[in-house]
């Protein structure tokens, strides 16, 4: 389900869930789901999240707290700074994680 053409959630029930193939990018997955919780909270919806790794038969609960919200807000400010650069930052070398990333074809490191 896509909300406000901004966030795309895999599963919504009494909690929201993101399904991931592996835990190789767990921090990024955690921040993605935390952002969804943050976004929904600003819409008046307070809900818990779950990262699900069906291949590994594992899940991790994600609950928004003050520390995570501060990290999201700091990250959003950094994104705004980058958006205002007159030219994009220098491309960093492709990491091993990039090769498995769902955004590889959209990301500039894949060019
Ligand atoms: S391909 Fe781009 S978005 Fe994906 S991990 Fe690499 S740098 Fe990040």
What do these coordinates show?
With 111 residues, the chain is α+β, with helices and mostly antiparallel strands. The chain has one domain. Helix content is 32%, strand content 18%. It contains two helices and six strands. Strand 4, helix 1 and strand 5 form a beta-alpha-beta unit. The chain is globular. The model has no long low-confidence stretch (mean pLDDT 88). It binds iron/sulfur cluster. The site of iron/sulfur cluster (SF4) has 7 residues, from loops.
Strand line-up of the largest beta sheet: 3-4-5-6
**Helix share of residues?**
25-40%
The gyration radius over C-alpha positions equals 15 Å
**Ligands, ions, cofactors:** iron/sulfur cluster
Overall pLDDT:
88
Distance between the termini: 29 Å
Strand content: 15-25%
Put simply, the count of helices is: 2
Stretches where pLDDT falls below 50 for ≥5 residues? none
The rough form would be described as globular
Write the H/E string, N to C: EEEEHEEH
Number of strands: 6
Q: Tell me the domain tally.
A: 1
Query: Which structural class should the secondary elements be placed in?
Result: alpha+beta
Query: Strand count, sense and closure of the main sheet?
Result: 4 strands, mixed
Short note summarizing the structure:
By secondary structure, the protein is α+β, with helices and mostly antiparallel strands. The chain has helices at 26-42, 66-83, and strands at 2-3, 7-8, 11-12, 16-19, 49-53, 58-62. It starts with a strand and ends in a 28-residue tail after the last helix.
